[in-house]
Amino acid sequence: MSMKTSTRQVDGVTIVDCSGRITLGEGSVILRDTVRELLSKGQKKILLNLGDVTYIDSSGIGELVSAFTTVRNQGGELKLLNLTKKVHDLLQITKLYTVFDVRDDEASAVKSFN
Amino acid sequence: MRCFGSRGFGFAGLVHRHFAMTELRVSYTLDSTLETVDNAEQTASRIAAESGFDEDVVMQISMAVREAAVNAVLHGNAYDPEKKVKLEFERTGNDLVITIRDQGKGLDLAKIPDPLAPENLLKTSGRGIFLIRSFMDEVQIHPSQTGTEIKLVKHVHGPSGDVKEASQ
To answer: I need a labelling partner for A7 at 20 to 30 A (CA). Which of A18, A25, B24, B145 fits?
Structure first.
């Protein structure tokens, strides 16, 4: 299943619904382009909904880190929503779980943005 | 992402393959492409499942193979069409052993940073070998001037009891 993203606005926060695989190649590129496009439009409060992400590899993890630092360097915030167990475990073993702001409820996640 | 399932293995250069009740030995010679990475992952997933590992372990094995294939294709062979990746699966009664060889300049293990070190946490790469070591029971890396060989071992009957009865 290819990586797909769709975006929606909720109370000034851009929620990016991601599905499929975030892996080396197409999946990572789609995520990168999506975040860059949002930043270019001044949308710097980004909530990545990973609930339908079925697979992520080390390149995908790197892309999440890149998105996180890129948004932060431009004065924005990027948070993660609805991690699957697989993605949760990957972020745990790579010690990234505490780096990211990880949420499991969309409404409270949206409110958590400054 | 593209699916290659309908094309069978989708690999060039099938060298040897035979199945016994519990034993398996199969090897492939592969091009240095992203398609190889996806196919290696899918084949590892299938063979691991056929070997009786449960779903979580199948995922670990397929991810380890994917990461090793990425290293071989990108960092070893650097997408060079003249260079090949050799992928071999061997199942004995006790282990699933997977070997991936590239024809690159040889991985410099000393240059691989610890991805868990605080100063490296926000780096965007360098987690592949770490994930491989995390997911497999044994990992042997043999770099040489003619390429790198990485051998991955998963015990069929691990101490955690994470393996189902092997399907026959």
So the answer is: A25
Question: How much is the ipTM here?
Answer: 0.91
Return per-residue pLDDT of chain A as tens, 114 residues. 678 999 999 999 999 999 999 999 888 899 999 999 999 999 999 999 999 999 999 999 999 999 999 999 999 999 999 999 999 999 999 999 999 999 999 999 999 997
* Domain locations in chain B as residue ranges: 12-155
Q: Which CATH number fits domain A4-109: 3.60.21.10, 3.40.190.10, 3.30.750.24, 3.40.50.10330?
A: 3.30.750.24
Interface of A with B in 58-77 (CB under 8 A): 58-59, 61-63, 65-66, 68-69
Q: How far apart are CA B86 and CA A80, in angstroms?
A: 38
Residues B139, B94: Cα–Cα separation, whole Å: 16
Count of CB atoms within 10 A of residue A44's CB? 18
Question: How close B40 gets to chain A, by Cα (Å)?
Answer: 14
B 17-76 near A (Cβ less than 8 A): 34, 37, 59, 63, 66-67, 70, 74
Domain B12-155 -> CATH class = alpha beta
Q: Residue ranges of the domains in chain A?
A: 4-109
How far, in Å, are B37, B67, B101, B115, B120 from residue B60 at the CA level? Answer: 15, 11, 20, 18, 23
